[in-house]
Structure to design on (396 residues):
């Protein structure tokens, strides 16, 4: 009700009519900026929006505002026409440790870059105050953002989507943003096209593990459990590749360096990591970016999640495809008799709940992917034909 009242008082409905006319332009295609400048997994769960826009407005020029560390993904995401990279001057966690002069310079340069593109519309899948101010300072005429923020005045088109206690996944909630533009929100798998690398990173049959997560955004499966899983597959003469960042190299060598059949890779970029995951038989990882990257390239995967609703697998599930088994078979969590929305950490008697996920459940998930058969081709999203609003006839 509040959203409808705000749309009437602010003239948002008139702006939406003008925006849909812009969508119909063919000589000067509409330019759309999709803003998601946080982590790798969050960015991947935003890609269905770009696929839906590409299907319904095929002549549009779609750019993304993403973190600088993700720019190499341009090599295998053909549905994105251009990238604007955030140097780390917008989000609070990226601005830590930087001087005021550096932040001001980066922000000014970013405003000039965005302004030079002359975007018609900015869609905020995730917004903080400075990123919302950026779109307004850059002169983007139509800015679609969340109403549940204190800086909602920086936008002139809004959506209201409660996320914390919902039963839907993140990519489904992102797709619902398109309803505010009167566009369809049917899921369509993002298209990937990995380039041919000069040298293969790994040959033969192998599995990949990403056991170490330093961000602390959610509880993780203990690295000792990954170590036991690697020993299990090593005893079965299965090759295992353990991946991580450069800062993780010392920890990974301490846990996995002495296990036969295990190789540690900590120097790969995103393109090389995607190519490694594409060729893997299976991937094991916590709820983090590499898990979502494995799902994006179509690799069978097993994820380990905490039980609380804000970080559970139903909320942060990976992108599905026609081979994906049931959620409980490949995204593993616990089922303790406690109804938690946000993790209470050590105050909870079952903390840490992820440590109780059985290793045998992870082994069974590999068999679940092997049993899953493609259920035929899913129907593609049908493009919605936009109609020009009827003109009123003048009275004679």
């Amino acid at each position: 009700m509040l959203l409808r009242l705000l749309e009437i008082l602010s003239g948002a409905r008139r702006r939406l009519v003008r925006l849909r006319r812009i969508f119909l332009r063919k000589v000067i295609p509409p330019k759309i900026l999709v803003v998601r400048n946080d982590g790798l997994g969050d960015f991947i769960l935003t890609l269905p929006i770009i696929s839906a826009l590409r299907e319904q407005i095929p002549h549009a020029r779609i750019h993304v505002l993403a973190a600088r560390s993700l720019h190499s993904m341009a090599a295998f995401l053909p549905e994105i026409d251009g990238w604007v990279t955030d140097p780390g001057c917008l989000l609070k966690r990226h601005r830590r440790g930087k001087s005021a002069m550096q932040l001001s310079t980066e922000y000014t340069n970013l405003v000039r870059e965005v302004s030079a593109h002359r975007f018609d519309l900015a869609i905020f899948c995730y917004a903080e105050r400075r990123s919302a101010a950026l779109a307004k300072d850059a002169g983007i005429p139509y800015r679609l953002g969340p109403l549940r923020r204190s800086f909602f005045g920086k936008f002139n088109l809004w959506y209201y989507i409660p996320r914390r206690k919902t039963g839907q996944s993140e990519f489904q909630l992102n797709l619902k943003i398109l309803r505010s533009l009167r566009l369809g929100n049917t899921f369509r798998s993002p298209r990937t096209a990995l380039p041919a690398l000069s040298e293969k990173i790994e040959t033969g049959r192998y599995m990949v593990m990403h056991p170490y997560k330093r961000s602390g955004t959610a509880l993780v499966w203990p690295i000792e459990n990954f170590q036991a899983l690697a020993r299990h597959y090593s005893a079965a003469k299965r090759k295992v590749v353990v991946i991580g960042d450069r800062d993780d190299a010392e920890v990974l060598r301490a846990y996995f360096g002495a296990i036969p059949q295990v190789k540690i890779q900590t120097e790969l970029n995103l393109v090389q990591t995607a190519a490694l995951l594409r060729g893997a038989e299976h991937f094991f990882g916590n709820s983090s970016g590499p898990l979502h990257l494995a799902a994006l390239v179509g690799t069978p995967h097993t994820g380990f999640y905490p039980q609380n609703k804000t970080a559970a697998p139903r909320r942060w599930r990976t992108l599905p495809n026609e081979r994906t088994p049931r959620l409980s078979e490949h995204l593993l969590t616990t089922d303790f008799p406690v109804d938690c929305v946000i993790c209470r950490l050590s105050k909870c008697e079952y903390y840490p709940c992820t440590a109780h996920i059985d290793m045998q459940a992870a082994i069974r998930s590999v068999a679940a992917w092997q049993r899953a058969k493609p259920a035929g081709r899913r129907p593609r999203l049908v493009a919605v034909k936009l109609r020009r609003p009827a003109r009123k006839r003048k009275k004679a």
Residues 325 and 334 are 18 Å apart (CA to CA). The first strand starts at residue 31 and ends at 35. The longest helix spans residues 100-117. The radius of gyration is 23 Å.
